[in-house]
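Kindly review this protein for my students:
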Amino acid sequence: MALDLGTLWGDFIASVTGKKNTPLIGIDISSTSVKLVELSEGANKELRLERYASEPLPRGAMSDGNIENMEQVAESIRRVLSKSGTKVKKVSLGMPPSAVITKKIVLSGGSTEESLELQVESEASQYIPFALDEVRLDFCVIGPAPNSPEDVEVMLAASRKEKIEDRIAVAELAGLKATVMDIESYAARAAISRIIEQSENGGKDKIIALFQIGAKMTHISVILNDQTVYEREQAFGGNQLTQEIVRSYGLSFEEAELKKKSDELPEGYEEDLLNPFLENAALEVTRAIQFFFTSTPYTRIDQIYLAGGSSVLSGLLDVVANRTKISTALISPFKGMELSPNVKEKQLRNEAPSYLVACGLAMRRFDQ
């Protein structure tokens, strides 16, 4: 399930165009980069990857999911648009989970959409620690309530107006029109659900843990039968390794980040810096799994998937698998997709895990 956060916010694609499958790009604005994905419908209605690209953000342009420098972020978006070669102007953007309050509520069944909106607004005040005129609300009907089939279970989502408006404004500054706003964790789940469906027996009854290891944060989601049963964020990411490189070799942060990605660091880097970081990362993963076991009724994980920009560090996959004793894989959100001639397959294999959220945002084109 994915939320537009758009029904009560104004323009979203279906209402604007009256058409389905309108061209739409997904843009993921993280703390360190802007990532773009454009998908289309290929042969046999399979998804086709048309374009993807990434552009770094200046340090300080984003902080804790907030846009601190509008012009710098817009300039990075303009550059990623140029690099990708896309001509699409409508964009799906994501909000960090920490900026969105979500809550499942039960409402009276048999109501019209207008009536449901009124009920949602009435109920929202119980769950949102802000005045309702300071937030944007949206909701999505999940289905009949589990213990009351005549009623409906609804997912309520709310975020501060300024956080949404900042993202809409930065898109406009870059020459785009924001037509869908999603939650980043929901976009990631949409992308991984497609991969799970391709696994044996469609992943039925398999408990799957997704670790999105970014620059500053690791987002953990545990999924069972296409439902997220657990979510958590941990303050751990690739910037910790970059800072160690800065201290050890006297480089600027930008130089250290580039050399880390290109594997151009002095002899001894692996033993002194990389291997301790990988062990620490694996320890963070095992701690997260133990916390999941102690705070939920579940006692097993069947599969670990790693994603995010820091997941592709050489050796991380093996270290996590060895420490957890659980089947572990890097996830490519583009698995099974047709690739356009614009896409370099070898380069894509190395970069794909960092595009999970951007891919999920781009997939919203087909949800309208």
Observations:
- The radius of gyration is 21 Å.
- DSSP finds eleven helices and 16 strands in the chain.
